[in-house]
Every structure is written in structure tokens, then in C-alpha cells.
Write a structure and sequence with these properties.
Blueprint (H helix, E strand, L loop, with lengths): L1 H11 L2 H20 L5 H10 L5 H29 L3 H18 L5 H13 L4 H25 L20 H4 L5 H8 L1
Helix pairs in contact: 2-3, 2-7, 3-7, 4-5, 4-6, 4-7, 5-6
């Protein structure tokens, strides 16, 4: 009965969707305990970005998103400190962030960096302390997302298929438990 319910639920939403919801809820909930007025979006987005299809991809995404958070926050904070916030400065800052990620070989992480830079740039009047809090909320989301991805409904690779038996021989599964193995071998040939 439980297995049937599990199949129905996973048939509708899937384990990655469930893990995403859990990770976002935990990250936003934890950050709301620290400060309910800021950091929720960063933690939630970072947690959602960390739900990967398997463990290896999850490690790559974690590295990329950590770099995205760091460089995005740093670029946004420096640009906000030097230029202040004005809508016409956002374009050149976004161009710099994308150029940084492309030159460093992480173009897939650029969207996370752009998001962080724009959040920091929008609140340039709050200074480097806000940038540090924003970076912390992103890292909290990344860590929670990684932990949920690894330990909640973990990815299990499909069972390896048995290699086919060479032509003219019977596969072990065909002869196992047979009353007359010689007849089965002759039938297989």
C-alpha cells in the first residue's frame, strides 16, 4: 500500500521537485529566523539551484554557484560603492559579471552572479555589510540545497544491465535451476 502511494506521488511530481520544495522551505525558514526582512530570496534561489540530477553534477553546481555568489556579490558591492545605484549602471555591471564568468570558464554560473550583483547594486546604500549578509544567505541556501539533494531521496543509478552472452552459449540465467541443462543449451544454440 505504501509503495503504491509512493509511486503515485512520484509519478505526479518526482523526487527532484519534492527535494526542491524541501530545500527552498528549509533555506527560507532558516534565513527568516536570522532576519525576516532580507536574505530569503537569495537563500531560496540558491537552494533551488542546488537540486541536481546526481551527486557528481551536484558537486559541480555547488562549486559554480559558490563562485557565482562570491563574484556577483563582490562585483555588485564594489560597483555600488564606486557608482551608487542608478538604473543605467546595471547594464555595464551585468556585462562585467558575465565577462568575468566567461573568462573564468564558468558561463553557466553567470545568471547566479548577475542576480547577486543586481541585488547588491539595488541596495548600494546599505554598504558592504548588506553584501556580506547577501553572500551568507546564498551560501546557506547552497549548503541546505546540497544536503537535501544528497540525503533526501538520494539519487540511485539504474542497475547495471547484464552483459549479453556470446553467441552459441547460454546465459547463466537461462540454465539456472533447469531440470535438464543440456536441452536448454541446445535450444539456445
Amino acid at each position: 500500500m505504501v509503495e503504491g502511494l509512493r509511486r503515485r506521488v512520484f509519478g505526479l511530481v518526482g523526487p527532484r521537485l519534492i527535494k526542491t520544495g524541501i530545500a527552498v522551505s528549509l533555506a527560507c525558514g532558516l534565513m527568516s529566523l536570522v532576519d525576516p526582512t532580507k536574505g530569503l530570496v537569495g537563500a531560496g534561489v540558491s537552494a533551488a539551484l542546488m537540486i541536481a540530477p546526481d551527486e557528481h553534477v551536484g558537486r559541480q553546481w555547488a562549486r559554480n554557484q559558490f563562485l557565482a555568489a562570491f563574484l556577483g556579490v563582490l562585483t555588485g558591492a564594489v560597483a555600488g560603492w564606486l557608482l551608487g545605484y542608478a538604473p543605467w549602471f546595471t547594464g555595464p555591471v551585468v556585462m562585467v559579471v558575465i565577462l568575468l564568468y566567461t573568462r573564468l570558464g564558468y558561463p553557466a554560473a553567470a545568471i547566479g552572479g548577475v542576480t547577486n550583483a543586481l541585488f547588491i547594486l539595488e541596495h548600494a546604500d546599505r554598504g558592504f555589510l548588506f553584501a556580506a549578509f547577501r553572500f551568507t544567505s546564498s551560501v546557506v541556501g547552497l549548503v541546505i540545497g546540497w544536503l537535501v539533494n544528497r540525503y533526501v531521496l538520494p539519487y540511485t543509478p539504474p542497475a547495471a544491465q547484464q552483459p549479453e552472452a556470446p553467441a552459441g552459449t547460454a546465459a547463466p540465467a537461462q540454465t539456472a535451476g533447469a531440470d535438464e541443462p543440456d536441452e536448454q543449451i541446445e535450444e539456445a544454440v
